[in-house]
Design brief:
about 250 residues, alpha/beta, Rossmann fold, SIR2/SIRT2 'Small Domain', 2 domains, 6-stranded parallel β-sheet, two-stranded antiparallel sheet, 9 helices
Length: about 250
């Protein structure tokens, strides 16, 4: 656990009085559970591919089987992963604070498995499937040897319910996230590089709205110089320390 003395006393006081908190998490949060980030090298059969060459609509049109099988491999990795202390601390914070909205760029569902409620998933969820033609979520389909399988409603190809490079975020999802940010008085940016848009703009919207901004990350990012508090380290160490200091 992180040394208590490294947490600024001012931040502790702000947390104790905060009414509307917004937390935005990125790939670093899941990496602590062993989920590879897009910046990590591919392994095994996938070592010769770049993720940016597979997670696009063009790649799916060109070779839908390849893309489907890559996401099947990623789903298997996620299934084997477990929520880490950072995920669990956020569950505690959501239960203890008057209002905490959790926004994530991660598509692994680990926040929900940890117990977080009403998570806003900016980039979708790879454990869910939708029709590539009409966008309808599909829970099941008849047994088939087709890869990828076909939509049981219209016959179109099925694909992961994630936002690919070159696609826009769902308007309603982005609206909910921005509305929460504008109403918050404290914003956490956790485990994100602060490069991927539009998620990277959220802490700056929080600053414009008068909120205090806290960054938790092992390294400096484009946000660091603008944040009121920058805590260097792993979320799985820092967040449990915050919970202990404020609510023990």
């Amino acid at each position: 656990m992180m040394n208590d003395e490294l947490i600024p006393a001012e931040l502790i006081q702000i947390l104790r009085t905060a009414r509307r908190v917004v937390v935005s998490t990125g790939a670093g949060t899941s990496a602590e559970s062993g989920v590879p980030t897009f910046r990590d090298a591919q392994t095994g059969l996938w070592a010769r591919y770049k993720p940016t060459e597979l997670a696009t609509p063009a790649a799916f049109r060109r070779n839908p089987r390849l893309v489907w099988e890559w996401y099947a491999w990623r789903r298997e990795l996620v299934t084997k992963a477990a929520p880490n202390p950072g995920h669990l601390a956020l569950v505690q914070m959501q239960a203890l604070m008057p209002e905490l909205t959790l926004i994530t760029q991660n598509v692994d569902g680990l926040h929900q498995r940890a117990g977080s409620q009403q998570v806003i998933e900016l980039h979708g969820n790879l454990t869910r499937t939708k029709c590539a033609d009409n966008g309808y979520l599909v829970d099941s389909w008849p047994p088939t040897e087709d890869v990828p399988p076909h939509c049981p409603h219209c016959g179109g190809l099925l694909r992961p319910n994630v936002v690919w490079f070159g696609e826009s975020l769902p308007e309603e999802t982005l609206f909910q996230a921005r509305a929460a940010v504008r109403q918050g008085d404290l914003f956490f940016s956790i485990g994100t590089s602060s490069f991927v848009q539009p998620a990277a703009s959220l802490p700056f919207e929080a600053l414009d709205s008068g909120a205090k901004v806290v960054e938790i990350n092992p390294d400096r990012t484009p946000l660091t110089a603008h944040a009121h508090f920058a805590l260097y380290g792993k979320a799985g160490e820092i967040l449990p320390t915050l919970v202990k200091l404020i609510w023990s």
